[in-house]
């Protein structure tokens, strides 16, 4: 058995900028800061990490109370902002999720920097939640490198069996997706549908680099 864990933004979907807009609105509503995340690099980071870095950038102390208020505002805005005409599934998502579910019959989950409620809001807009019963999220730990063991514990509990790191394959679009998997010995497929080109991802320790998810079918033995 393999456990296939997907990143969300840049890998499964493009949210059409909904996440960034929602965080900007949250900082405006809570702190009266305009365009708080203009020119801010978010790719591969967890939501909590992004919020803390955003607060630090504007000289604001990242208290637990304040972070909770920002998250509440962010989620409220995200429910609205995800309903935009620019959002889109990444190429091959329907094909590969259907193939893994129906043909390989492997469990799939999420390994994402999104807090769990935010992840579910984004995936619901594409009717994808049913493929991913659980996983590990930015709300579990702000350091993405700590998420894989959390995902494994949850799936091991569901399937009543021990799942090892080398049974896991992480699919993501940034070097941070690679960095959160390789120290544990998990395999990584890096997909160039986010902000990083194939050439850049080839410089990481990813086991396979592909243009988009349609190419996994041609490399299906990699999943077995």
Explain what this protein looks like in three dimensions.
42% of the residues are buried. It is built from eight helices and eight strands, in the order ββαααβαβαβαβαβαβ. The radius of gyration is 17 Å and the shape is globular. Helix 1 packs across helix 3. The protein has helices spanning 18-31, 47-57, 64-81, 93-104, 116-124, 147-159, 175-179, 198-201; strands at 3-6, 13-14, 88-89, 108-111, 135-136, 168-172, 187-191, 208-210. The chain is 38% helix and 12% strand. The protein has two domains: 3-15 and 87-223, Rossmann fold (3-Layer(aba) Sandwich); 18-81. The protein is α/β, with parallel strands linked by helices. The strands form two sheets. A six-stranded parallel β-sheet has the order 5-4-1-6-7-8. Strands 2-3 form a two-stranded antiparallel ribbon.
Helix and strand layout, with pairings?
Layout: E1 3-6, E2 13-14, H1 18-31, H2 47-57, H3 64-81, E3 88-89, H4 93-104, E4 108-111, H5 116-124, E5 135-136, H6 147-159, E6 168-172, H7 175-179, E7 187-191, H8 198-201, E8 208-210
Parallel strand pairs: 1-4, 1-6, 4-5, 6-7, 7-8
Antiparallel strand pairs: 2-3
Helix pairs in contact: 1-3
Low-confidence region ranges: none
CATH architecture level-2 label of the largest domain: 3-Layer(aba) Sandwich
Mean pLDDT figure: 94
- What is the CATH superfamily classification of the largest domain? HAD superfamily/HAD-like
> Oligomeric state of the chains?
single chain
Rounded to the nearest angstrom, the radius of gyration is 17 Å
* Secondary-structure element string: EEHHHEHEHEHEHEHE
Largest sheet: 6 strands, parallel
Tell the overall outline.
globular
> In CATH, what is the class of the largest domain?
Alpha Beta
Intertermini distance: 8 Å
Number of helices: 8
Number of strands: 8
Q: Give the strand line-up of the largest sheet.
A: 5-4-1-6-7-8
CATH fold type of the largest domain: Rossmann fold
Provide the β-strand percentage band: 5-15%
Q: How many structurally independent domains? A: 2
């Amino acid at each position: 058995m393999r456990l296939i864990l997907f990143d969300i933004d840049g890998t499964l979907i493009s949210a059409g900028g909904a996440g960034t807009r929602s965080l900007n609105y949250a900082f405006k509503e809570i702190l009266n800061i305009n365009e708080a995340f203009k020119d801010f690099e978010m790719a591969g980071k967890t939501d909590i990490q992004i919020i803390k870095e955003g607060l630090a950038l504007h000289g604001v102390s990242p208290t637990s109370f304040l972070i909770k208020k920002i998250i509440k505002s962010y989620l409220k805005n995200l429910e609205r902002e995800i309903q935009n005409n620019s959002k889109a599934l990444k190429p091959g998502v329907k094909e590969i999720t259907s193939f893994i579910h129906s043909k390989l019959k492997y469990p799939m989950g999420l390994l994402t920097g999104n807090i769990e409620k935010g992840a579910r809001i984004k995936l619901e807009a594409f009717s994808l939640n049913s493929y991913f019963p659980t996983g590990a999220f930015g709300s579990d730990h702000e350091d993405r490198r700590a998420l894989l063991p959390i995902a494994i514990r949850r799936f091991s509990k569901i399937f009543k069996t021990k799942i090892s790191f080398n049974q896991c394959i992480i699919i993501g679009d940034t070097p941070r997706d690679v960095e959160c998997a390789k120290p544990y010995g998990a395999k990584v497929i890096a997909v160039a549908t986010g902000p990083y080109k194939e050439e850049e991802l080839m410089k990481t320790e990813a086991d396979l680099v592909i243009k988009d998810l349609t190419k996994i079918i041609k490399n299906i033995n990699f999943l077995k």
